[in-house]
Amino acid sequence: SQQGEEDPQALSIQEGENATMNCSYKTSINNLQWYRQNSGRGLVHLILIRSNEREKHSGRLRVTLDTSKKSSSLLITASRAADTASYFCATDWMDSSYKLIFGSGTRLLVRP
Amino acid sequence: DAGVTQSPTHLIKTRGQQVTLRCSPKSGHDTVSWYQQALGQGPQFIFQYYEEEERQRGNFPDRFSGHQFPNYSSELNVNALLLGDSALYLCASRRTGLSGNTIYFGEGSWLTVV
Question: Is residue B114 part of a domain?
Fold first, then answer.
C-alpha cells in the first residue's frame, strides 16, 4: 500500500500564481523527498527535508514538514508553464533502508 | 557528472518472454534500487542492491530478479512476462553514508508486454 498520499490529485492554475501540494504519510520517517515527473519521463529530484527539519527553500520551492501531523507541503511560487508536471512525495522509513514509498502524485497544470 | 542512466528507453515484448533492463548509477553512488511505475500511479519499490547483494525487496514475485556488478551497475530481469508487467521501470541510486540521503532517478525504461 502507498505510504504517502498527495492532495489534491490534480491542480490547474494560471501562470504566475502559486501552487501548493500536500502530502500525508503513515509511519515515522527519516527523510521526505519531493520529485517532479514530466509526462512519460523519469523523476527529477527537487528537495529533501529531514525529519528534524521543519522548512526548506530551494529557488521558487518551499517545503514544510510537520512530523506530528505526518504531513508535508510543497509550495511553488510564481509558477511557469514549464512547471506543468506530476509531483510526488516519497518517504523512507526509520529503518534506514532508504526504500522510498511514494504517493500517487499531484498533476499540476499551469496555464499560460 | 553523468546522472543515472538506463537502457533501453523503450521495448516491446511478448507474453511469456524474458527481459533485461540495465542501469548505471550516478558517479560516486554505490546503492541501486529498482521501481515499477504503472500508468497513473506512483513508483513501487522492487528491490535494492548494495555490495552486489539484494538488501531489500518489495512485494514482487520471484519472476523479478536482479544483479549488481562490481562497478555498481545493475540489471533487472523479469521472466515469464505478463501483460500486467507493462510499466515504466525506474532505476535509482544513492551513496551510502550520512551524506547520501538524496536518491536520484534515471529516465526509465518503458516496457510494453503484448
Answer: no
- Which residue of B32, B103, B104, B110 to mutate against A (max A Cβ within 10 Å)? B103
Task: Please tell me the distance in Å from B56's CA to the nearest CA on chain A.
Answer: 7
Amino acid at B60: F
pLDDT at A5: 81
Cell of B88: 515504466
- Domain boundaries A5-97, CATH class: mainly beta
pLDDT digits (tens, 9 = 90+) for A3-34: 568 889 999 999 999 999 999 998 888 889 99
Q: Which three cell numbers stand for residue A6?
A: 498527495
Nearest CA in chain A to B55: A97
CATH number of the domain to which B30 belongs: 2.60.40.10
Q: How many domains does chain B have?
A: 1
Residue-wise pLDDT tens digits, A29-84: 888 999 999 987 899 999 999 999 999 999 999 999 999 999 999 999 999 999 99
pLDDT value for A30: 84
B1: how many CB neighbours lie within 10 A of its CB? 5
Judged against a pLDDT cut of 50, whether residue A1 lies above it is answered with: no
Chain A residue at shortest CA distance from B43: A102
Domain-wise residue ranges, chain A: 5-97
Q: Report the residue of A92, A98, A101, A107 to disrupt the B interface, i.e. the one with the largest count of B CBs within 10 Å.
A: A98
Residues 6 or more apart whose Cβ sits within 8 Å of residue B105: A35, A42, A43, A44, A45, B4, B35, B90, B91, B92
In chain B, residues with a C-beta closer than 8 Å to the C-beta of A87 are none
